[in-house]
C-alpha cells in the first residue's frame, strides 16, 4: 500500500475519521466555489444590472424607432433609456410608451421636454419635434417600481413598433 492509499483510509486514532464522507464534503465545497465564482462573473457582466448582458438595443422593422435600454433592473433603482425616433422633417411626431410599461416603471425625468404629453389607454403619448431630418432623441430616466418580468412596447404613431422584455429584481 502506497502513502496516498494509506492517507485515504479511515482512522480511529487520534481522531475518528470517515474519509468517504470527507471526500463528499470536499466535492460539495468545490461545487459551491464554482457556483460563487459564476455568480460573481455574471454580476460583473451585467446579469443583475448595467453591463454587457443587460444593455441592449431594439429597432423597429421600419427603422424609424430605436430604443437603447437595460434588460435587468433593481426595484427602486433608476435606469436610463434612450429613444431615437424619426418622423417627417419639421413636423411633430408622437412616440407612445405602452401602458404595460407604465405598470412597472415610473418616469423620473425626460430630456428634452416633449412639445406635449398625454396619458391614454394605450399609454403615455409624447409629441416631439424632430431636427432637419425629422429625427429626435429622447432621454428617459426610469425608476423601477414593480417586481418580475414586464413586457414593454414603444411605438411611433403611424410608424414603427418595438416590443421587449425587462426584468426587475427585488
Describe what this molecule looks like in 3D:
Keywords: Membrane, Transmembrane, Transmembrane helix. The chain crosses the membrane at residues 31-53. It is a single chain. The chain has 2 domains: 3-44; 55-169, Immunoglobulin-like (Sandwich). It is 22% helix and 45% strand. The chain is built from 3 helices and 11 strands, in the order H-H-E-E-E-E-E-H-E-E-E-E-E-E. The strands form 2 sheets. A 6-stranded mixed beta sheet has the order 3-11-10-5-8-7. Strands 1-2-4-9-6 form a 5-stranded antiparallel beta sheet. The protein is rod-shaped.
List keywords for this structure.
single chain, six-stranded mixed beta sheet, 11 strands, 2 domains, alpha+beta, transmembrane, transmembrane helix, 170 residues, rod-shaped, Immunoglobulin-like
